[in-house]
Structures are given as C-alpha cells and as structure tokens.
Amino acid sequence: MKTLLGRFFDAIFITRPIILIPVWGYFLLGYYRACLVAHPSALVPFPFFHIDFPVLLSLPNRALLAMVMLTFAVAGTYILNQLVDIKTDRENTGLPLVAKGNIPLGLAYAENWVLTLVPIGYALTQGRDPIIFFLAVLAMNLLYNLRPFYFTGRPFLDFLTNSLGFGIVAFGIGWLAANGQVLGPLGAFFFSAAPYVLLMVAGSINSTLPDIEGDCRTGKITTMVYLGPGRANLISLLALVLALGLAIANHDVIAGITAAVSLPLFLKYQVTKKLSDGVRTFQIGGGFLMLMVVPVFPWFFFYGTITYLATRIYFRVRHHVDYPVAG
C-alpha cells in the first residue's frame, strides 16, 4: 500500500507542479486581458485609491476545464523534457525526479502519453481555434524536447519556444476560454500578448544560468552557453525595455509594473556578473509577475500556496530534501 501510495504521489509530482504555477498565471492573464478587451461585464470593479480596479472573482466551469486541460498538456511536456534530459539532469543541481528520484521510466512514459492525448481529445470538441492552440502545445513539446530538433539545447530557439509557449499559447488558451473559444481579431490578441512574450524571453534566458556548467559538460548549447552570461543578459534587458514600452502603449498595468520592477535586477546582474544576482533576476522577476496575478484573480494565491506546500511536503517525506528552496 505504501508503495502504491508513493507511486501515486510520484505520478503527481513528476509533472513538476511548482513550475505549473506560471502556466496557470499566464492562462489567467490571457483570460483577464480578453475580458478587459471584449467582456468587461465579467469583471467586478474593486475600489483602490479612488480607482475602480477590475477584478476576476471566479472562473466559469468551461474556463476551469480549459485550464485543467492546459495543465495536462504542459505537464506532459515537463515529463518528456525529463525523459530526454536524463544525462544532463544528472550533471545539474537539484532533484529532477526521472534522473535522480528513482521514478520508473514506464510510469513516466505512460503518464506522458495520457497527459498528451487527453487535451488533444478535449480540443477536438471545442472548435478550430482551441485545436490550433493545443496542437501548438504538442508541436512545441516535440520540437523542444526531441532530436533532431531539440530546441531546449539550441541557442535562441530555447527561449523563443518558451516565450511563445507561455506568452502566446498559454495566454491564448486563457483568451479563448474568455472569448467563447474564438480568438477574435488577431491584432487585439497579439497586442495584448506581446508584453508577456517579452517578459518570458527575459525570464527564460536567465533561468538557464544556474545550469550553465552542466549544460556545457553535456553539450547542451543553450543561449546562455552560446553567448555567455553577459551578452545573453543583454537580450533579456532589451526584451524588458520593449515589454515596458508595449505595456505602456497597451495600458497594461500588470505587465508594465513587472517590467519596471525587473529591470533593475537585470541591470545589477549586468554590472556584477554574480551568480546570486543572476538567479534573482528570474526568481524575483518571475515571482513578481505571478504575485501580480493575485489582485486580478484572488483564488490564484490559494492555488499557488497549496501547490508550494504540497511540493515541500512531498520532497521532504518522499526524498528527504528541501525543495523548492531559495537560490
């Protein structure tokens, strides 16, 4: 019984739920922005310093289902990433469960198939636009993880895949859920999504900084490896400046404040070149964006807190390590 129960929790946490939180955040931001653009009646005005700030107090069942299906699809991506990166993960820090956690490969492969196929089946019942977006998740999954493509280990393609996956696909599936599963005018969608794509560019590039030595040893040529930390961080800085400008043009308070808060962190790292400062760029910057989702959808705090605590308990009880921990 203990073994079965342990494997049940392994099956949950092999999906790396702690890093699914940003997926939920981008989905909710897409849903929220679509409501602002086309469905303001779905939002409730909340008085804040004599300004009515529109807030999303609940999600309809159809939106919750869409978020669950997106969670499944991305969780399958994370499992496949671990399966193909076993050698690299053994060289890097942390406790990737497939490489170091004694998780049966059969369990990982079976779960990956289920989590990949169920969302595709869901999308086929929802119409053309959801099919396109969920197939995009599948395509990015294969391109990012599998050879000969292996975008996760190729400069520029690594962060472009991540930024489009979050800023366009996850954001877009949230947008669709708010918009009756129809994308609507392309200009409105891409204009709303652009700042979030650029925020993810900066976060994605710098998130590979702690793994740079292990990636070099195993021949994984990320943008950080290819350009070196200094020049790679310059791309992140440019992305943040563009994100700030687009957010201002789009009257997007959330993206604008996040870019403004993040810029000093990336500038400091550009000057100091300290690993600790580099880690703070994506930890604090990315964490701040997720924190900004809470005023938009207060239940997000509950989702994130439960996921964090459950992850801490699982790794402490099952693997006797503290995870996640501050960098």
Structure commentary:
The chain is mainly alpha-helical. The protein has a single domain, classed as Orthogonal Bundle (Farnesyl Diphosphate Synthase), CATH 1.10.600. It contains 15 helices and two strands. It has helices at residues 2-13, 21-38, 61-84, 86-91, 97-100, 105-124, 128-145, 157-178, 186-207, 212-218, 223-227, 229-249, 253-272, 275-296, 299-319; strands at residues 44-48, 51-55. The mean pLDDT is 90.
Summarize the structure.
The protein is mainly alpha-helical and about 325 residues long. The protein has a single domain (about 1-45, about 55-320), classed as Orthogonal Bundle (Farnesyl Diphosphate Synthase), CATH 1.10.600. It has helices at about 1-15, 20-40, 60-85, 85-90, 95-100, 105-125, 130-145, 155-180, 185-205, 210-220, 225, 230-250, 255-270, 275-295, 300-320; strands at about 45-50, 50-55.
What is the element layout, followed by pairings?
Elements: H1 2-13, H2 21-38, E1 44-48, E2 51-55, H3 61-84, H4 86-91, H5 97-100, H6 105-124, H7 128-145, H8 157-178, H9 186-207, H10 212-218, H11 223-227, H12 229-249, H13 253-272, H14 275-296, H15 299-319
Antiparallel strand pairs: 1-2
Helix pairs in contact: 2-8, 2-9, 2-14, 3-6, 3-7, 3-8, 6-7, 7-8, 8-9, 9-12, 9-14, 12-13, 13-14
